[in-house]
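queue> holo job accepted (2-acetamido-2-deoxy-beta-D-glucopyranose)
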Amino acid sequence: MEQRGLARLRLPGLLALLAALAARTPRVSASGDLNLWPLPVSLKTTPRLFYLSPGNFFFGHSPTSKAGPSCAVLQEAFRRYYDYIFGFYKWHHGHNKIPSEMELQKLEVSVIMDPECDSFPSITSDESYTLLVKGPVATLTANRVWGVLRGLETFSQLIYQDSYGTFTANESNIVDSPRFPHRGILIDTSRHFLPVKTILKTLDAMAFNKFNVLHWHIVDDQSFPYQSISFPELSNKGSYSLSHVYTPNDVRTVIEYARLRGIRVLPEFDSPGHTESWGKGQKDLLTPCYHAREPSGTFGPINPILNSTYSFLSKLFKEISTVFPDEFIHLGGDEVNFNCWESNPAVLNFMMNKGFGKNFKKLQSFYMQMVLDMISTMKKRSIVWQEVYDDEGKLLPGTVVQVWKMGDFYKELENITAAGFPVIISAPWYLDVINYGQDWRQYYSVKPLNFAGTPEQKQLVIGGEACIWGEYVDATNLTPRLWPRASAVGERLWSPQEVTDLDDAYRRLTRHRCRMVRRGIAAQPLFTGYCEHEGRM
Ligand SMILES: *[C@@H]1O[C@H](CO)[C@@H](O)[C@H](O)[C@H]1NC(C)=O
Ligand SMILES: *[C@@H]1O[C@H](CO)[C@@H](O)[C@H](O)[C@H]1NC(C)=O
Ligand SMILES: *[C@@H]1O[C@H](CO)[C@@H](O)[C@H](O)[C@H]1NC(C)=O
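queue> job finished
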């Protein structure tokens, strides 16, 4: 009896912890080697372990921090990360009694500069942070809340629960900041509608991988789900159905959810091609195609020769520029099919008057120029697909060019940066293209700066995006197709250039994938194996 009493008193405490550790030593201990993803810039760890008890741990603000409990970004993040760390496990032992010198009781957060609690993240947001894990109080220091968010993710990844239910973290010292400021995921809500819930799930997973841009390719040929305030007919007629629409409230929900995770929402309204669905709700917007000198009844790209086109676009983009707070708007400009323009006598006549001859690229440039000028008068910056640069559009300085054609994309990077334009790389990261096997390795092995150019040119590579186009993707398969394959891109864009070891990446990514599964992300397996803790899938 007395023995039992003793056991009850002590065993859930220190002895149990030590026994648990001893029992585990023959296996490769997951607490021994860390499972951080993406790897930080600098990481020092010691064998000294600290123990966390769910009932006796909290996040708090340092007394000298410029941010306090009124900062929603941080309060919400504290709640989330408490759950990620403790919430999804079964607590086998309830509240362990941990000797105080071995316990980690608090993570104290300190923001040094104006925290930007009520701002939206931007391309220049400071995401750097320093994390000191020790007992009884660990510290997380950052210039802005954006760095705190990244540091909280790292902190949560340092905490490991063994099969006995004990939470531990190695003593560590981490200094970290991203390699590239633009780290995006492109989703396509036109080929298939993605419910808001699915988009929010994607934002969660993005935060787990330190992505900071949701590139929302919101409309295209197939459907126009964006509900415009100025032109409600666009989605009334152009969406798949009236229940497959993003209302102004839906859009606000996505933007705020993203903001709380330090993620920008970059809207893309691709034109003049890829606009079939626009034509359903906006009369005379698309070019009528001709066959044998008669209108054929079909329509091509946006009609670039009508004044009404530009007054429509000006009003639409004015709205977009206020609905989406980001400094950038993506204008598309890719894959314009010239056949319809070529068939239309009024278009040919317009080109003759303009002196374009039969050069349809000049007509395309004329159109893009009009739209680019429009955007700059709205105090926004433009992003365009590479064709707009390739086809000799006179781009305003600062226009960002997104490189998507696989061909010789390093040469393309060299050319565009030599001309002085910032670039985003997505050519090697089209995740909608699927292969048998571990294609994450090829995404991981991309060297974004591996082109001939000056240091100034390399500076113009602002980042990259993993793209998951929607032809074969909807809410049923978006998440497993994206994760953990996009995680490979996430580490490439965050971690230092030297982080290239594929074996180490495989080991960490396998566990990172299990961590995502535990947190409710249906990430697919990398290869054979199992996850140690059952998730809530
Ligand atoms: C963490 O601590 C354990 C237990 O002392 C030790 O075996 C392991 O090597 C440490 N891991 C790191 C990465 O320092
Ligand atoms: C279109 O606008 C231009 C420039 O404002 C003007 O010169 C032209 O007459 C207008 N065309 C039509 C058909 O209204
Ligand atoms: C880069 O520019 C050169 C010289 O203008 C041109 O010949 C080449 O085709 C361009 N390459 C790419 C990939 O755009």
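queue> The chain has two domains: 42-176, 182-519.
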